Amino acid sequence: MKTEIILKEGYPFIFTSGALFIFSLLFKFNVFLQLLLFLVFAFFVYFFRNPERVPEDESKGAIISPSDGEIIEISETVAPVVNKEMIKISIRLSIFDVHVQRSPIAGEITAKEYIHGLFLTLNDNKASELNEQHRVLFSNSEKIVVNQIAGFITRRIVDFGLFGKVRLGERYGMIMFGSQVDLYVPKNTNIKVTEFQKLKAGESLIGFLNES
Q1: CA–CA–CA angle 120, 130, 63 (5° rounding)
Q2: Catalytic site residue 179?
Q3: Rounded to whole angstroms, what are the CA distances from 32 to 14, 16, 36, 39, 154?
Q4: Which position among 90, 128, 179, 204 bears the catalytic label?
Q5: CA 20 to 30 Å from 26, out of 49, 161, 180, 192?
Q6: What is the pLDDT of residues 106-121, one digit of tens each?
């Protein structure tokens, strides 16, 4: 299946800003305004880019980052959906990151939960609990949860509709604009990342499942 270079979710933003830029040229708007409209158009094209990614490690048990961004916290807590103690890896996205999320393991999507919540700023400690979020359970020999969390500006989490079998690094959804993704992995996972490390979805190695 052919992959979109630009996500269709971005078309309304790209076409509207592009039309406004062309309109400004045709009617000879102020040069500063023309430049501003062009930058807005260019930003939307850049934001909704959908690059190909190759996993850093595809060996058995490999866990690949589900999201672009920076790790802001690694801790142990009770994971949603499965309701058991797991390692949580919180990944904060900036508006300059690719906002597509990808399957962290090869296996199956076996459950989803959409939580309608608030839109607190992600600097608020309660945001990961109270904000709107979409939780997806990935399963093979182990279970992994990925939670997409909307931020203050973000007002939409997109589900691409996948259910059942997924490939390692396969795209399954996105969050509009700045946001956070929490990855929950089993406590015996061999973690290969540290806090403040930058990650790329579908590419960066998180660690390995201990399948013994």
Answers
A1: 100
A2: yes
A3: 20, 19, 6, 11, 28
A4: 179
A5: 49
A6: 999 999 999 887 666 6
